[in-house]
Specification:
Order of helices and strands of chain C: HHHHEEHH
Order of helices and strands of chain A: HHHHEEHHEEHHHHHHH
CATH architecture of the largest domain in chain A: Up-down Bundle
CATH topology of the largest domain in chain A: Fumarate Reductase Cytochrome B subunit
Number of strands of chain C: 2
Strand content of chain C: under 5%
Structural class of chain A: mainly alpha
Oligomer: heteropentamer
Largest sheet of chain A: 2 strands, antiparallel
Helix content of chain A: 55-70%
Distance between the termini of chain A: 79 Å
Distance between the termini of chain C: 65 Å
Number of domains of chain A: 2
Helix content of chain C: 40-55%
Number of helices of chain A: 13
Strand order of the largest sheet of chain A: 1-2
Strand order of the largest sheet of chain C: 1-2
Chains: A mainly alpha, B alpha+beta, C mainly alpha, D mainly alpha, E mainly alpha
CATH class of the largest domain in chain A: Mainly Alpha
CATH superfamily of the largest domain in chain A: Transmembrane di-heme cytochromes, Chain C
Structural class of chain C: mainly alpha
Shape of chain C: elongated
Radius of gyration of chain C: 24 Å
Chain lengths: 346, 266, 134, 385, 541
C-alpha cells in the first residue's frame, strides 16, 4: 500500500461521505446545493485570475525559448518555423499546437538499455495518448454540461452531443440496461484515460517516485466526478428536468432546491465544487501556466530584435582602461597596440 | 428520492429474470427497504390470448387464386398494416416488399421446366419469407438482429440491425428488403399501431407476430378468404398438417435444405 | 505581489477577459431570461387515468429505461404485457399505450426533451402522428 | 518515429495536401450518404452489395499478400526480404484500414457498428471477419512498428514480437479465407458456392499484392534515396508469376466444373459476366479485359527475359493489378448477385457519389500508406546514411 | 583521466535505474567523491567581490555558512520570483507527468533518481511551496512541501552542480519547463551564501581580470597565436599572422580561449587564422583579435545573471573601443547561448555597430541585425554557398566524421544545419548519429555548465555516456573516427569521454576541418594536416 495515493483516496472518500451524509441525514440541501457551488465558482474565478496576475507581475527579463529546430538564419537554410519561431505568428502556431495537441509531449520517447549495451530511444506515445484523451474528453464533457446551464440549448452544444453519442452502445443483461439514454463516448473515454493516468502513476516506478499525494488527489477527485456522473446517467437515472431547473436557478441567481434528486447528484456537485475551489491552489494551474511559459511563448529572435529587461541594472565591470593599466607594460613589450603609452618609463 | 432511482436500476435484474425464466416475479430486496406498504412485484408476460406454436407454417392453396387481382388485397392488407412503403420511382432498385406476386418460373426457378401447363405458367404466385426451419439469414446476421423465435418465426429486430445486408445475400428467396432511404415519405397512410422503419435497416415479413400475440392470424391469411392456411407445423392435428396430408405441395428451393415453412398447393 | 506592475499587460488582460467570459458564459447567456422548467400538459385522458405505469417520479427519471426494457421484451421475447406493482396490466407499446394517453407528444414529450436537450430516436420509427407528412 | 512523417519536403506536403483534399470530398459525399441513406448508391434490392464490398474484398487480398514477404524472410530466412518486409506489412496496414472503412461505409446504420461486439454472434462469418481483420491490423501495426523501431535503433527486436510474426502468417491466410467464406457459404448464390473460392481469392491476392508492392518499390527507388533492391523486386516478380498462373488455373477449374456440369444456377452468372444474360451485360467488356490483362501478364512474367527487364515488369505488374482488380473489384460481387435468386436480371452500376466515397476511402488508405512509407524511407535513409 | 575510475564495462554494469523504495524527501544526500567539483578558491570569490569567500570542503560537516543563510536564501528566492516569470511559472505548473525523467543524460548515466529533471527542480520547488504557497503552508508534505534545512541545502548544491543546463528535458516538457532555468537560479541562490565550485569561480575571476578563463595575460596570448602562425607556416608555407586590438578593423573576432590554449581546440584556432588570411588575401577581409575580450565563453553564466553580465560586457565594450562594424564569434556553446539569449538585453543596444553584412558575399545576416554578432558557422556556410572558398575536401579523406550538436547552439539557438553544411563541404565521409540523439535531441557531453573539472570524472563519464553510446554506434557501424563539434567545452570534454567509452575517435572543430581543406593562395604542397598527421594519399610516400 502506498500512503501517497491512499491518502488522496481516503480524502476523496471523506468528501464523498461528507456530501452523502450531509444530504441523507442532515438534509443540508442549501449548503451543498447552493452555497458551496457559488463559493467554489467564486474561488475558482478569483483564484485563477489572482494567480495569473501574480505571475504577470514578474517580468520576463530574457528571451529564452527552447529551440527545437533549425533557427532562421541564412535564406537558403530551411527554417523550422514552428519549433524555432522567429515571428509572432509562428509563436502563435507553436502555442496552439502545444496547448491543443500537446506537441512537446508528442516527442516523448522511452530510453532503453539493450543487448550489447546499446541505448535506444523508443516509441512512448501512451502518455501523450492518455493526456490527449483525458483533456479533450474532459473538455467535451464540460461543454456538454452546458445543456444544463443554457435555455434554449445552443445548437453547437446539441451538435456536440450528437457527435458524442454517434456510436450507439445498446445492450441489456440481467444486471445492466444500457442504451437509453444514449451513451456519450466522451464520458467513458474520460474514465478510461483517468484510470490509465492513475495506474501509470501507481505502477511506473519512476512516476510513482516523483508523485505526491497532491498528484493523486485530482485524479481520484475527477474520477469521483466521472463515476458519480456516469452512475446518474446510466444506472440510477435521475430526473434531469428537475436538475436543469435547479442549475438554471443557480445561473439566473434564483436557486431553488429541486424535488426528487438523489444524494448522488449532490455528491457530484460537491466534487465539482471541490475541484473548482482546489484548482487555483494546485498544479491544476498548469492550464493557465502553459500560456505563460517563456520557453514556448516567445520567438527566438533576440539576435534580430532587442528584448528589454525592465530591471536591467548596471553592474561592476572590469573596463579596458583598468585592464590596460594592469598590463600596459607587457602589452607594449609584446607589440600590442595600447591607448596610452607609458608615461614615466614604467 | 435516492431509493427510487436505485430501485429502478435494480428492477432490471428482476425484469430480466422474469423475462427469461417466466418464473414468478422476483423481489427486489433493496426496493423493499422502507417501502413496505407498496407492492414491489411486477410482471412481464405474454398475452393470454396469444396464439402459440412450435413452428408456425403456412399453406397457400394456389388453386384458389385466378389472377393478380386476387392477390392484390392480401398484399395490400399486409403492406398497409405494416407501413411498408410504396417506392414507385426506381421500382426495382429500392423496392420494399414483404409479400408479393411473381411468376412460377421465378418463384420456383428450380422446378420450372421448359414446358409448363398453361395455368401454372400464367398464374401469379405469392412469395414471402419462408420462415425456414434452418434459416441462412439468421446464420449470417452478425448481431442477432435477425433471429428465430421459439415459435419458428424468423424475426427482425429493427433496433439492432446495422444494415450490413449479409442476410440479404444469404437469403435464397429474395425475401428481404433494405431501406435504402427513409421510408416514411413513401407510406400513403401510416398505421400508428405499427412502427415504420428507418433508413439503413433490413426488413421482411414477420408472419404478423404482432397479431399472433393478440390472438389474430396473419393479415394475409385473414384476407385470403381461406386460400391460405396458417398453423403449427409440429401439431399433427393442425389445419396446415391436414392440408399437407391431403394435398401434393411444393416448397421453394427445397434442395437447399433450409426447410421453408411456406408450402404451396398447386 | 511585490510590485503592482503587470508585464505583458495587454496579452494577459486579454487572456483573462477571455477566461472570464468563458467561465461566466452560463450567467450572461441566461441574463434576464426566466427559464422555468417546462410545464407538462396532460390530455384529458391522462388526467382521468390519474396514474401512469409507474409512479410519477419514477417515470420522470426512468421512463426511457422502462421503454428500453419493453422494447427488448416485446421484440425479442414476444412478451407484450406488463403488470405493474399495483397489479394493473398494460400493453408494452409506445404507440398503443403511452401515446394513447399522452397523445399530445409536442406538449408532453417534446417539452422536456427540448429543455434537457435530449433527442431520442424513437420517433424515427414509432409514429406519433399518423397524419403528419414530411 | 511518427514525427518523421511530419517532416518532409515540399513535394511530400503537396502530395499529402492533395490527398487530404480528395479525402475531404469523399467525406462530404459520405455525410450525404449518412443523411440520405444508401439510396445514393447504385445498390438495389437485388444487388445488395456493390462497389464498397467489392473493394473491401479486393483489398483484403492486398493486405493478406504481406505474408508473401513474411514467409520467405522469417520462416525460410531469405535475408533479401528483410529490406522490404516492412513495406509489405505497412501496405497491409493501409489495406486493412481501407477494408474496415469500406465495411463501415457499406453499413446502413454505422452508428450501430458496435453491435458487432456488443452482441457477438460466433455463427456469423461477418463476426469472424471483423475479428480477423482487426486482429491482422493490430498484428501488422505492432510487428511493423517494433521491427522498424529496432532497425532504427539498430538493436534486436524485442523477443515477444517473434511469436506475433509467426502468428501473422496463418492470420494473413485467415483474413482472406474468412472473407471468401462470407460468400461461399451462402446457399442459393451459385456463383460463389464453390470450395475453390478461398484458394482463388488467395491466388489472386498473392498476385495483386506483390505486383502493387513491386510498383511501389520502383516508385520509392525513383523518388527517394532508399533502394528496395533489384533482387527483392525480382523475387517478388517470381511470386507474382506463380500466383497469377495459379489464379487463372483456379478460375479455369471453376469454369470447367460449372460448364461441364451445366447446372444453370452456377452457369448463368458466368454467362452474365462474359457474354451477357437476357440482354444485360454491362460487365462483359471489363471481364474480357481482365482475362486479356492476366493472359498478357503471364506471357510477360513467365519469360525470364521480359520479367527481368524492369520496364517490362512494370507493365506486367500493372496488368496483373488491374486484371485482378477488375476480376474481384468489379466482377466478383456483381457477378454473384446477377441473376438474383429468383432469376431476375437487374444490373448494378455504381453511382458517382458511391465512386467518390470509394475514392475518398482509397485516398485515406493512400494517406496512411504515405505516412507509413515516409517513416520507413526516412528510417532506411537514416540508418544507411 | 582519474585513476580511481571503474573500467567502462564495470561502470556500465553498475548503472542501476531501479527506483528506491524510500521516498526522495526521506533520502538524505550522499556527497560522493568523483561526483562533485571542489569548492571554490576564496581568492577567486574575493576578486569578484562575491559573498562569503572562505575555504571550505563539501565533505566536511561544516560548510562555514553565514549565520543568516536561510534568510538570505529566502530573500534571494523571493527576489528572483519577482524578477523571473519563468521561475515563478515553472515553480507552479509542473504536474509531474514524468516525461522528462529519462531524457536527462545524468539520469541515464547514473541512475540516481534525483537526476531526473523533475526531481532536480522539486528540490527547489519543495522549499518554494513551503515558503511561498498557500497549499504548501497548509498541507505540507502532502502537497510536496518541505522546510529548508542544511541537508536540503547540501542536496541543492550537490544536484545543481550535477546539471549541465543542457535543456534536453525542456524539449519534452509539455509546459516547456526548463530545468536549466531552475538550476541557474538555484546556483545563483547558492552563490549568495558562497557555495560555488572552483572550476567555475576561478575561470570567472580570471576572465574578469585578464579577459580569458585561463588568466593568460595579453602578451602570452599573442605568444600562443604566434606559435600557431609558425605551425601553419610549417605546414602550408603561408604566413597567417593576425592583427590584435586593431582600431578601425572591420570585424572583431572573439572565440573561447580554450581554442587558444588547449588541444584539440588549438587546431580549430589555426583554422580560424588560415581562413582569415585566405579571406584577407582574396577579398581584403579585415578582422582583428582582442586581448581584452579574448574570451567567448562565459562561466559567469554558471554563477549568476549578474556575473554573466559583468563578463559579457567586455565584448561590446571592446567592439566600441575598436570601432568595428560587427563581431564574428567562434565555435562555442554557452558563449552562443549567452549571445543569443542575453547579450543584447544585458549589455545592448549595440547601436554603435552596423547591421552585419558579409563584406565578401554581401549577405545580410538578418538574424543578427540587433546583436550584431555572427556565428562563424553561419559566416562560413554563406561563403561556401557563394563559392567563395577554394576547398579540397579530399584532404580530410582520412576522417570519417560525425557531428555532435552542442546543447546550447542546438536548444538555445537552433543552429543545426549551418555546421552540417560546412562539414559536408569540407569532407567526404559524413555520418549522422542515431536520430534521437542529434539536433534538438542531442545529448550533452556531460561536462557543460562548468563541470569539466578533473575531480568529478566519474560524473562526467556517466553524464557523457548517452552521447558516447551514440558515437560508439556510428564508430562500429561506419568506422567513424572523428567527432566534429562547434564548442570549446566539447573539445575539452569529449576527448577523455571518447578515450574512456569509444577509443579510436578523435574530436575536431569544424573550422579545423575547413583549415585542412582550404587551398591557401601561394601555399606549398601540404603533406600533413594541421595536427601534423600525414594527409591521406601521402602516407605511403
Amino acid at each position: 500500500m502506498n500512503s501517497k495515493y491512499m491518502f488522496s483516496l481516503v480524502a476523496v472518500i471523506i468528501l464523498f461521505l461528507l456530501a452523502y451524509i450531509g444530504i441523507e441525514t442532515a438534509g443540508l440541501y442549501t449548503l451543498f446545493g447552493i452555497w458551496i457551488p457559488y463559493a467554489a465558482v467564486f474561488i475558482f474565478a478569483v483564484g485563477v485570475v489572482y494567480r495569473v496576475v501574480d505571475w504577470a507581475q514578474s517580468p520576463v527579463p530574457f528571451r529564452i525559448p527552447t529551440t527545437c529546430g533549425q533557427q532562421k538564419s541564412l535564406p537558403w537554410i530551411r527554417h523550422a518555423s514552428i519549433d524555432n519561431p522567429a515571428e509572432n505568428n509562428n509563436v502563435v502556431l507553436r502555442m496552439f499546437l502545444e496547448v491543443v495537441f500537446f506537441r512537446s509531449l508528442f516527442r516523448n520517447m522511452r530510453f532503453d538499455f539493450n543487448k550489447g549495451n546499446k541505448f535506444s530511444y523508443e516509441w512512448e506515445k501512451w502518455l501523450w495518448v492518455g493526456a490527449i484523451a483525458f483533456h479533450w474528453t474532459l473538455f467535451v464533457v464540460v461543454v456538454r454540461h452546458l445543456r444544463f446551464f443554457t435555455e434554449p440549448v445552443p445548437l453547437c452544444i446539441q451538435w456536440l452531443e450528437t457527435l458524442d453519442s454517434f456510436l450507439r452502445v445498446e445492450f441489456m443483461t440481467d444486471f445492466l440496461q444500457i442504451g437509453l439514454p444514449g451513451v456519450f463516448m466522451s464520458g467513458l473515454v474520460l474514465l478510461a484515460a483517468l484510470i490509465y493516468l492513475l495506474l501509470r502513476r501507481m505502477f511506473i516506478p519512476q512516476v510513482n517516485y516523483i508523485s505526491f499525494s497532491a498528484d493523486f488527489f485530482p485524479l481520484f477527485l475527477i474520477m469521483g466526478i466521472a463515476l458519480s456522473g456516469l452512475f446518474m446517467r446510466y444506472l440510477a437515472k435521475v430526473d434531469i428536468v428537475a436538475i436543469k431547473a435547479f442549475t438554471m436557478g443557480l445561473v439566473t441567481f434564483h436557486p431553488v432546491i429541486p424535488e426528487g434528486v438523489g444524494s448522488v447528484f449532490y455528491v457530484h456537485l460537491f466534487f465539482v465544487s471541490i475541484l473548482l475551489a482546489y484548482f487555483p491552489f494546485s498544479k491544476l494551474m498548469h492550464a493557465g501556466g502553459v500560456f505563460l511559459s517563456p520557453t514556448r511563448n516567445m520567438a527566438n529572435n533576440s539576435r534580430a530584435e532587442r528584448h528589454v529587461n525592465p530591471w536591467n541594472y548596471p553592474v561592476k565591470v572590469h573596463t579596458y582602461e583598468e585592464y590596460e593599466d594592469e598590463f600596459r607594460e607587457k602589452m607594449i613589450e609584446a607589440g600590442l597596440p595600447v591607448e596610452k603609452e607609458l608615461t614615466n618609463g614604467g | 428520492m435516492m431509493q427510487s432511482s436505485r430501485r429502478n436500476f435494480l428492477k432490471i435484474a428482476g425484469l430480466s429474470a422474469v423475462g427469461i425464466s417466466g418464473a414468478k416475479p422476483v423481489l427486489d430486496a433493496f426496493a423493499a427497504e422502507g417501502h413496505g406498504d407498496e407492492r414491489t412485484e411486477f410482471e412481464i408476460r405474454k398475452n393470454e390470448k396469444a396464439l402459440t406454436a412450435q413452428q408456425w407454417g403456412m399453406v397457400i392453396d394456389t388453386r384458389k387464386f385466378e389472377s393478380a387481382a386476387d392477390l392484390e388485397p392480401l398484399i395490400e392488407a399486409c403492406h398497409s398494416l405494416h407501413n411498408v412503403p410504396h417506392i414507385d420511382e426506381n421500382k426495382v432498385r429500392h423496392e420494399v416488399k414483404w409479400i408479393w406476386e411473381d411468376e412460377y418460373k421465378h418463384v420456383f426457378p428450380t422446378l420450372a421446366g421448359k414446358f409448363v401447363d398453361e395455368r401454372t405458367e400464367h398464374l401469379p404466385f405469392l412469395a414471402l419469407c419462408n420462415h425456414c426451419e434452418n434459416p441462412p439469414c439468421v446464420r449470417a446476421c452478425p448481431t442477432k438482429a435477425t433471429f428465430k423465435r421459439e415459435d419458428g418465426i424468423v424475426l427482425m429486430d429493427f433496433h439492432r440491425c446495422i444494415g450490413c445486408r449479409f442476410c440479404m445475400a444469404a437469403c435464397p428467396y429474395g425475401s428481404r428488403s433494405f431501406n435504402f432511404k427513409d421510408p416514411r415519405p413513401f407510406i400513403k397512410e401510416r398505421n400508428p399501431e405499427f412502427p415504420t422503419r428507418m433508413k439503413g435497416v433490413v426488413e421482411k415479413c414477420n408472419f404478423c407476430a404482432e397479431r399472433l400475440a393478440v390472438g389474430k392470424k396473419p393479415a394475409c391469411v385473414e384476407a385470403s378468404n381461406g386460400a391460405i392456411a396458417f398453423g403449427d407445423m409440429n401439431d399433427p392435428e393442425s389445419e396446415v398438417r391436414e392440408l399437407l396430408k391431403s394435398n401434393y405441395t411444393i416448397r421453394r428451393k427445397k434442395g437447399l435444405g433450409t426447410e421453408p415453412a411456406v408450402y404451396y398447393i398447386v | 505581489m511585490a510590485n503592482n506592475k503587470m508585464y505583458d499587460k495587454g496579452k494577459i488582460v486579454a487572456g483573462l477577459v477571455i477566461f472570464a467570459v468563458m467561465i461566466t458564459f452560463p450567467f450572461w447567456f441566461n441574463l434576464g431570461k426566466a427559464a422555468p422548467a417546462p410545464e407538462l400538459k396532460l390530455t384529458e385522458k391522462a388526467k382521468a387515468a390519474k396514474e401512469c405505469v409507474l409512479e410519477k417520479a419514477e417515470m420522470k427519471a426512468g421512463h426511457m429505461q422502462l421503454l428500453d426494457i419493453w422494447r427488448e421484451k416485446v421484440v425479442r421475447e414476444g412478451s407484450r404485457e406488463y403488470v405493474n406493482t399495483k397489479g394493473k396490466t398494460y400493453q408494452m407499446s409506445l404507440s398503443k399505450t403511452c401515446l394513447d394517453c399522452h397523445s399530445n407528444k409536442a406538449e408532453f414529450c417534446d417539452r422536456c426533451h427540448d429543455y434537457a436537450s435530449v433527442n431520442p430516436y424513437c420517433w424515427d420509427c414509432h409514429i406519433d402522428n399518423p397524419k403528419e407528412k414530411k | 518515429m511518427l514525427e518523421t512523417a511530419l517532416k518532409g519536403n515540399k513535394g511530400y506536403y503537396r502530395w499529402m495536401a492533395a490527398i487530404v483534399a480528395v479525402i475531404g470530398v469523399g467525406f462530404a459525399c459520405y455525410l450525404w450518404q449518412l443523411k440520405d441513406g444508401l439510396g445514393i448508391t447504385g445498390m438495389s434490392r437485388d444487388v445488395s452489395w456493390g462497389f464498397y464490398i467489392a473493394q473491401f474484398t479486393f483489398l483484403v487480398g492486398v493486405a493478406a499478400s504481406a505474408v508473401m514477404l513474411v514467409i520467405p524472410y522469417y520462416l525460410h530466412n531469405y535475408k533479401a526480404f528483410g529490406k522490404i518486409a516492412i513495406l509489405g506489412e505497412f501496405l497491409a496496414v493501409a489495406s486493412v484500414s481501407m477494408c474496415l472503412m469500406f465495411i463501415l461505409a457499406d453499413l446502413g446504420q454505422p452508428m450501430r457498428a458496435l453491435n458487432m461486439i456488443l452482441h457477438p454472434t460466433p455463427g456469423s462469418v461477418l463476426f469472424w471477419d471483423m475479428i480477423v481483420l482487426n486482429g491482422y491490423l493490430f498484428l501488422n501495426i505492432v510487428i511493423g512498428w517494433k521491427v522498424l523501431e529496432a532497425e532504427r535503433n539498430e538493436v534486436m527486436v524485442a523477443g515477444w514480437v517473434k511469436p506475433l510474426i509467426y502468428l501473422s502468417v496463418p492470420w494473413a491466410v485467415s483474413i482472406h479465407t474468412v472473407t471468401a467464406f462470407l460468400y461461399c457459404g451462402l446457399p442459393g448464390r451459385g456463383f460463389w458456392l464453390t470450395a475453390i473460392l478461398a484458394p482463388r481469392f488467395l491466388a489472386s491476392a498473392f498476385a495483386a499484392g506483390p505486383s502493387l508492392l513491386i510498383l511501389l518499390c520502383l516508385l520509392i527507388r525513383k523518388i527517394t534515396n532508399f533502394d528496395p533492391g533489384r533482387e527483392q523486386i525480382q523475387s517478388l516478380a517470381k511470386i507474382v508469376t506463380y500466383a497469377i498462373i495459379m489464379n487463372v488455373f483456379f478460375f479455369l477449374c471453376e469454369v470447367f466444373v460449372v460448364f461441364y456440369s451445366g447446372i444453370p444456377e452456377h452457369m448463368d452468372h458466368f454467362k452474365y459476366l462474359f457474354v451477357g444474360l437476357h440482354g444485360h451485360g454491362v460487365l462483359v467488356p471489363w471481364m474480357w479485359t481482365s482475362m486479356g490483362l492476366m493472359a498478357l501478364a503471364i506471357l510477360l512474367l513467365v519469360n525470364p527475359a521480359t520479367r527481368k527487364d524492369e520496364s517490362v515488369l512494370v507493365v506486367a505488374c500493372i496488368c496483373v493489378f488491374v486484371g485482378t482488380w477488375i476480376d474481384k473489384g468489379l466482377g466478383m460481387i456483381s457477378g454473384g448477385f446477377v441473376p438474383n435468386p429468383l432469376h431476375h436480371v437487374n444490373e448494378y452500376v455504381p453511382t458517382t457519389p458511391e465512386i467518390v466515397i470509394a475514392i475518398g476511402i482509397y485516398a485515406t488508405g493512400i494517406f496512411i500508406l504515405s505516412v507509413l512509407f515516409k517513416i520507413v524511407v526516412t528510417v532506411k535513409e537514416e540508418v544507411s546514411a | 583521466m582519474a585513476d580511481d575510475l571503474l573500467k567502462p564495462d564495470e561502470q556500465l554494469g553498475a548503472i542501476d535505474h531501479k527506483i528506491p523504495k524510500k521516498g526522495w524527501m526521506d533520502t538524505p544526500v550522499n556527497i560522493r567523491k568523483g561526483m562533485y567539483c571542489y569548492a571554490s578558491n576564496p581568492k577567486s570569490v574575493e576578486y569578484l567581490s562575491l559573498p562569503n569567500a572562505r575555504k571550505w570542503n563539501p565533505l566536511e560537516e561544516d560548510w562555514k555558512l553565514p549565520e543568516n543563510w536561510k534568510e538570505i536564501i529566502y530573500e534571494g528566492l523571493r527576489e528572483r520570483l519577482d524578477r523571473f516569470r519563468s521561475l515563478k511559472v515553472f515553480m507552479d505548473i509542473c504536474v509531474r507527468c514524468g516525461a522528462c525523467a529519462d531524457k536527462c543524460h545524468f539520469f541515464i548515466g547514473t541512475g540516481d533518481p534525483k537526476n531526473m529533471p523533475v526531481l532536480r527542480a522539486e528540490l527547489l520547488r519543495s522549499v518554494y511551496r513551503n515558503d511561498f504557497t498557500l497549499a504548501g503552508k497548509i498541507l505540507g508534505s502532502v502537497a510536496g512541501a518541505r522546510e529548508m534545512t542544511l541537508d536540503v541545502l547540501k542536496e541543492w548544491w550537490y544536484y545543481f552542480y550535477q546539471c549541465t543546463e543542457c535543456r534536453r528535458c525542456s524539449v519534452f516538457c509539455p509546459y516547456g519547463i526548463d530545468t536549466a532555468e531552475i538550476t541557474i537560479i538555484g546556483r545563483e541562490l547558492l552563490n549568495l551564501i558562497g557555495l560555488n565550485i572552483d572550476w567555475i569561480a576561478t575561470p570567472v575571476a580570471n576572465c574578469y581580470r585578464t579577459g580569458n578563463h585561463l588568466g593568460i595575460q595579453p602578451h602570452a596570448f599573442k605568444d600562443m597565436l604566434d606559435f600557431f602562425v609558425e605551425d601553419v607556416e610549417d605546414i602550408t608555407g603561408v604566413n597567417v599572422e593576425p592583427t590584435y586590438n586593431k582600431k578601425g578593423a572591420d570585424i572583431l573576432f572573439i572565440t573561447p580561449s580554450g581554442d587558444v590554449f588547449a588541444d584539440p581546440g588549438t587546431y580549430t584556432c589555426m583554422g580560424y587564422m588560415m581562413l582569415f588570411k585566405y579571406l584577407k588575401e582574396r577579398y581584403g577581409f579585415d578582422v582583428t583579435w582582442s586581448t581584452y575580450a579574448s574570451e567567448g565563453g562565459n562561466f559567469g553564466f554558471f554563477t549568476s545573471h549578474e556575473t554573466m553580465k559583468r563578463l559579457n560586457s567586455k565584448m561590446y565594450a571592446e567592439a566600441k573601443r575598436l570601432g568595428v562594424k560587427w563581431i564574428l564569434g567562434g565555435e562555442c556553446g554557452h558563449m552562443w547561448r549567452v549571445i543569443n539569449q542575453y547579450m543584447d538585453t544585458m549589455n545592448g543596444p549595440a547601436d554603435f555597430m552596423e547591421e552585419p553584412v558579409s563584406p565578401i558575399t554581401g549577405t545580410k545576416f538578418e538574424n543578427a541585425k540587433s546583436t550584431k554578432m555572427v556565428h562563424i558557422a553561419e559566416f562560413i556556410a554563406d561563403l561556401i554557398k557563394h563559392d567563395k572558398l577554394e576547398l579540397d575536401p579530399r584532404r580530410n579523406d582520412n576522417l570519417k566524421v560525425t557531428f555532435h550538436d552542442s546543447c546550447n547552439p542546438a536548444r538555445g539557438m537552433g543552429m543545426l544545419d549551418e555546421p552540417r553544411y560546412v562539414i559536408q563541404n569540407v569532407c567526404n565521409h559524413f555520418y549522422e548519429m542515431p536520430a534521437n540523439t542529434i539536433r534538438e535531441n542531442t545529448f550533452c557531453c556531460g561536462s557543460g555548465a562548468g563541470l569539466n573539472a578533473g575531480e568529478n570524472m566519474e560524473l562526467r563519464m556517466a553524464g557523457g555516456l548517452p552521447r558516447a553510446n551514440a558515437v560508439k554506434h556510428v564508430h562500429e557501424k561506419h568506422g567513424v573516427n572523428t567527432l566534429a563539434c562547434v564548442c570549446a567545452v566539447d573539445r575539452a570534454a569529449l576527448p577523455p569521454l571518447m578515450e574512456y567509452w569509444v577509443p579510436g575517435v578523435e574530436v575536431i572543430g569544424m573550422t579545423e576541418m575547413v583549415g585542412n581543406a582550404l587551398i591557401m593562395p601561394g601555399e606549398k604542397e601540404r603533406d600533413t594536416d594541421l595536427r601534423g598527421e600525414p594527409l591521406p594519399g601521402t602516407e605511403e610516400e
